[in-house]
Amino acid sequence: MDKVVLTEDRLSQDGEIALATSRGSSPPVVEILSARKTFADGTIALSPVDLTIRQGEFLTLIGPSGCGKSTLLKLIANLIEPSDGRLVLWRGGFDQVGQEGRRMAFVFQDPTLMPWARVGTNVRLPLDLVGMPKSMSEPKVSESLKLVGLENFAQHYPRQLSGGMRMRASIARALVTEPDLLLMDEPFGALDEFTRNKLDTDLLDLWYQRKLTTVFVTHSIYEAVYLSTRVVVMAARPGRVYKIMEIDEPMPRGESFRASTRFADLCRQLSTWLADASLPGRMEEGTP
Ligand SMILES: Nc1ncnc2c1ncn2[C@@H]1O[C@H](COP(=O)(O)OP(=O)(O)OP(=O)(O)O)[C@@H](O)[C@H]1O
Ligand SMILES: [Mg+2]
After folding, report:
1. Which of 92, 97, 263, 269 is deepest in the core (most CB within 10 A)?
2. Over the chain, what is the mean pLDDT?
């Protein structure tokens, strides 16, 4: 598989991309080692996937429907087990996950808030579940709500919030545990483009401030290019890694990046790869 680094000077006039070796020497957070997933009904969701996610990366999975993006995320979260191969988290196995410095949080597409509970109570849930006293958890809830711009909405019910605000509350609930690894499965897929862009900008600020290792799933090429330090393009039937694009645009990124020709070039390249990955029977180069 090609590892491609795109920088302005490496993009020729016609958008052709030169190959370069991957950077990235931060410690691995997730090592996916020849992981396969076959479901009980025989569906091969993932053929062997090998991928290392390093500390501080913003890694995005993109690919046609059914290519195994959610399955891969669930494997990382240990919500399901691989049929073959293995995953190593923080080089320590799952028994150590959840300890200080090894926490992970999952944000789903649906905000999944408890409708009968106020926003503050919803956000406090993960801390209540581990029995943290309110005197300790309340300041964390306040801080988390502040991070997502909902500091004045702790007493509201989810139904009183817009779709974007509900998603923010869901992110606050994920952040309240101070995760080191944030897994997000199409979190903004149901939102309008304006709200999505705003949340993308805020998420990127958060990632930057917190140095949060993030694995993000989206169907949006624009979102993938805007947010990511690395984009993994997956192909379907069976699900596998097709191409990887590294995006070394400096952080923090703003509107000027979205409006740049470089952004357009990267989106065009990703779109071509995605179209290739969606062709039936298309295999990654070098794959038997
Ligand atoms: N529990 C399950 N049992 C059987 N097959 C499953 C199960 N979960 C997922 N699959 C199948 O595994 C494949 C990968 O599914 P997955 O949900 O990971 O795809 P995805 O890339 O997230 O798709 P989408 O973009 O539509 O969310 C699909 O063919 C799907 O039908
Ligand atoms: Mg999915």
Report:
1. 269
2. 86
Is residue 284 domain-resident? Answer: no
Domain holding 170, by residue range, is: 112-178
Q: Given the CA of residue 74, which atom of ligand 1 is nearest to it?
A: 18
Nearest CA to ligand 1 atom 28: 66
Q: Is the CB of 39 under 6 A from ligand 1?
A: yes
80 burial via Cβ count (<10 Å: 0-12, 13-18, 19+): middle
Q: What is the distance between the alpha carbons of residues 45 and 245, in angstroms, rounded to a whole number? A: 22
Q: What is the pLDDT of residue 95?
A: 62
32 lines ligand 1 (CB under 6 A): no
Ligand 1 within 6 A of 94 CB?
no
Residues 263 and 183 in one domain: yes
pTM: predicted TM-score of the whole model, two decimal places: 0.87
- Mean pLDDT along residues 212-219: 96
For 129-152, write each residue's pLDDT tens digit: 999 999 999 999 999 999 889 999
CATH for 224 = 3.40.50.300
**The pLDDT value given to residue 195:** 86
**Residue 145: what residue type?**
L
First to last CA, the chain: 12
Please tell me if the CB atom of residue 189 comes closer than 6 angstroms to any atom of ligand 1. Answer: no
Domain count, the chain: 2
